[in-house]
Amino acid sequence: MSATPPEPRSGPKTARARYMAARQQQTLSYVWPQALPVVGRLEELRAAIEAHQVVIIAGETGSGKSTQLPKLCLQMGRGIRGMIAHTQPMPHVHSLVTL
User: Fold this and answer.
1) Do the Cβ atoms of 60 and 37 come closer than 8 Å?
2) String of b and e for 42-70 (b: at least 16 CB within 10 Å)?
3) 34 CB contacts (<8 Å, ≥6 apart)?
4) Cα–Cα distance for residue pair 19/37, rounded to 1 Å
5) Got the DSSP string for the chain?
6) Distance, CA of 1 to CA of 71 (rounded, Å)
7) Pair 43, 31: CB distance under 8 Å
8) pLDDT value at position 32?
9) Which pLDDT score, from 0 to 100, does residue 98 have?
10) Is the Cα torsion angle 30, 79, 60, 96 positive or negative in sign?
11) Max Cα separation, the chain?
């Protein structure tokens, strides 16, 4: 009687490992619109993101914060093991209405 090797497990751990490997293999290209003010400070932003767990960035509307920062994070290798998220203030949340 010969023993057959067990079938490989296909549980969440191996599925996660396959997912991570696929994300690491993705090749993305990045276009940096030079007209956006945030693009001129990418190296400064990169250094801040590398040095700190939380980075607060303030800038004018239309400066490229919401569109360019996620690309920068992806280029830095962030988002492979999780998600890249950013939040924006919601002025109406801070309002109190009395009836």
Assistant:
1) yes
2) beebeeebeeeeeeeeeeeeebbbeebbb
3) 40
4) 35
5) --PPPPPPP-SHHHHHHHHHHHHHH--------TTSGGGGGHHHHHHHHHH-S-------TTSSHHHHHHHHHHHTTTTSSS--------GGGG-----
6) 58
7) no
8) 95
9) 47
10) positive
11) 83
| pLDDT one-digit tens code per residue, 28-70 | 888 999 999 999 999 999 999 999 988 888 889 899 998 999 9
Closest CA to 79 of 91, 88, 71, 87: 71
Show the tokens assigned to 85: 């998220």
